[in-house]
């Protein structure tokens, strides 16, 4: 997974712009009040952490050293970042009244234990708000690259569509069960369907630096890289119009409140 996250750090600017509407939707669910104590889980390079810091003191936690380094560099001293596994890190009990995440909570090996750990870090009534991918079938642009690239790299594997990974909380029934059993109440799971856009020129970074092609392309020679890109690019024609890529994202926006301990 580290290679993928390293690539993600390199592609941060493209991704932050692309997924800005999802960040806006997420931040719009933070309860009113401007002195909140916010934890951003799987914060990556810190776009949502920095944005959330306008509402109070925000701490970002991430397991990837390159991500946290990039986040610290861009945020300066205004925001705190912790390099740690959010599943097990001993956060101070009751330190937060809000937990947020954009695409950072689907990778837990043991979601129940992880969400229990986050619950212990919160006060009673704390707000949990996060955005996760719905199923692979509902997000075809996430799955179009690998089949196309197999024309050049026939052994290329696809990311699993169940278990820890991008689709780890795609099933709303099990997502709700994980939260219920980990001390979170009033769980609401809402579809969030947003068109995310980027300049066509950014599509290459998006497809080659993150996601399932990134590990295979990281060490590829120039000829292989070009052949893969030439094979993959046409698979995205259906989402390109007038110099822009229009990606119809299908996510869940999940809200819950910390139950009394
Ligand atoms: C898909 S990226 C999302 C990054 C960021 N939230 C964003 O929206 O740009 C997932 C992030 O979750 C982090 N992550 C995965 N498992 C984690 C864990 N157990 N504890 C903390 N961070 C984790 C990864 O390192 C990565 O930065």
TrEMBL record:
SUPFAM superfamilies the record matches: S-adenosyl-L-methionine-dependent methyltransferases
Keyword DNA damage: no
Keyword Ion transport: no
Gene Ontology BP term (one): methylation
UniProt cross-references to InterPro entries, sorted A to Z: Methyltransf_25 (IPR041698), SAM-dependent_MTases_sf (IPR029063)
Superkingdom as given in the UniProt entry: Bacteria
Coiled-coil intervals: none
Methyltransferase domain residues: 38-123
One function term, GO molecular function aspect: methyltransferase activity
Gene3D superfamilies, per the entry: Vaccinia Virus protein VP39
Annotated keywords: Methyltransferase, S-adenosyl-L-methionine, Transferase
A Pfam family reported for this protein in Swiss-Prot or TrEMBL: Methyltransf_25
PANTHER family linked to this entry: METHYLTRANSFERASE, UBIQUINONE BIOSYNTHESIS O-METHYLTRANSFERASE, MITOCHONDRIAL
Protein name per UniProt: Class I SAM-dependent methyltransferase
Protein's organism: Cryptosporangium japonicum
């Amino acid at each position: 997974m580290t290679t993928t996250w390293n690539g993600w750090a390199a592609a941060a600017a493209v991704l932050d712009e692309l997924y800005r509407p999802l960040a806006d939707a997420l931040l719009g669910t933070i309860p009113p009040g401007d002195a909140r104590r916010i934890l951003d889980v799987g914060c990556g390079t810190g776009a949502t952490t920095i944005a959330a810091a306008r509402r109070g003191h925000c701490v970002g936690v991430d397991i990837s050293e390159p991500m946290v380094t990039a986040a610290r560099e861009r945020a300066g001293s205004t925001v705190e970042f912790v390099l740690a596994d959010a599943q097990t890190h001993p956060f101070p009990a009751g330190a937060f009244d809000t937990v947020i995440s954009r695409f950072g909570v689907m990778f837990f090996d043991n979601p129940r234990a992880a969400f229990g750990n986050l619950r212990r870090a919160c006060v009673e009534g704390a707000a949990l708000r996060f955005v996760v991918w719905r199923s692979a079938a509902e997000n075809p642009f996430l799955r179009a690259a690998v089949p196309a690239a197999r024309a050049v790299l026939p052994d290329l594997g696809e990311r699993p569509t169940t278990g820890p990974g991008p689709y780890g909380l795609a099933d709303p029934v099990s997502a709700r069960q994980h939260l219920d059993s980990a001390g979170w109440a009033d769980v609401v799971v809402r579809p969030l369907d947003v068109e995310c856009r980027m300049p066509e020129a950014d599509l290459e970074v998006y497809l080659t630096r993150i996601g399932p092609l990134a590990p295979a392309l990281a060490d590829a020679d120039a000829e292989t890289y070009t052949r893969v890109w030439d094979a993959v690019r046409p698979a995205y024609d259906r989402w390109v119009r007038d110099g822009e890529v229009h990606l119809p994202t299908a996510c869940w926006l999940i809200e819950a409140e910390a139950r009394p301990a």
